[in-house]
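TASK: fixed-backbone design
INPUT:
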């Protein structure tokens, strides 16, 4: 039996955000029509991730599941919520790593920046939601390095919450340093609270969120296939 792909996102009250994630999962289903793809959440929306894992494993005695975090960085939700959901089912359920950092995400960010026609005189700030987990900030910094390879503008990072520098401070610093324009590259998956925070922070240009985008769907499939191979080998559930 092919392992179920459980795409676990944060959840949002934004109708536009829900539609974007739904469209992304439709893209995933189109890429792997032979795989059962189910949706789960760690907050705000239902069904909760632990309930979906339990339900999918009860479908058959040989059922297995791969949880792919539809999250850009590792943090509390991967290390606690998702880890707890798969931990009771060693050999049958496994969690893949978070989506970022990854070259495909850098290409998506580059395409979102393209309409702004950035130059070396502009400052690009990779603006992320933020987390109290230091690993998340490290991942965003690495994502900025990957983006820097794709564009001429200097790239720095800033956060909406949970880590420093905060986005308004980073924008002010870029202007003080003489940037022609300050461009906030929105490093969030979908419309919602954090993209709204980024949009209100005062940048000259704010890019669109990352999904739906077929490259993000392909990344989810890549994460799924690598983890599904581990399940097939009988390895225990883990989150990197």
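OUTPUT:
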């Amino acid at each position: 039996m092919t392992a179920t792909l459980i795409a676990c996102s944060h959840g949002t009250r934004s109708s536009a955000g829900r539609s974007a994630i739904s469209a992304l999962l439709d893209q995933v289903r189109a890429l792997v029509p032979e795989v059962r793809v189910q949706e789960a959440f760690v907050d705000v929306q239902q069904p909760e991730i632990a309930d979906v894992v339990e339900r999918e494993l009860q479908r058959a005695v040989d059922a297995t599941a791969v949880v792919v975090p539809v999250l850009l960085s590792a943090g509390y939700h991967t290390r606690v919520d998702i880890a707890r959901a798969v931990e009771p089912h060693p050999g049958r359920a496994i969690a893949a790593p978070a989506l970022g950092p990854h070259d495909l995400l850098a290409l998506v960010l580059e395409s979102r920046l393209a309409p702004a026609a950035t130059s070396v005189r502009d400052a690009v700030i990779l603006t992320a939601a933020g987390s109290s987990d230091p690993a998340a900030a490290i991942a965003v910094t690495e994502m900025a390095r990957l983006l820097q390879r794709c564009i001429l503008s200097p790239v720095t990072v800033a956060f909406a919450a949970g880590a420093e520098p905060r986005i308004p401070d980073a924008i002010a610093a870029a202007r003080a340093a003489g940037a022609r324009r300050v461009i906030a590259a929105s490093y969030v998956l979908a419309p919602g609270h954090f993209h709204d925070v980024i949009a209100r922070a005062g940048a000259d240009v704010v890019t669109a969120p990352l999904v739906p985008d077929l490259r993000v769907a392909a990344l989810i499939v890549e994460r799924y296939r690598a983890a599904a191979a581990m399940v097939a080998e009988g390895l225990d559930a883990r989150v990197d």
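COMMENT: The first strand starts at residue 4 and ends at 9.
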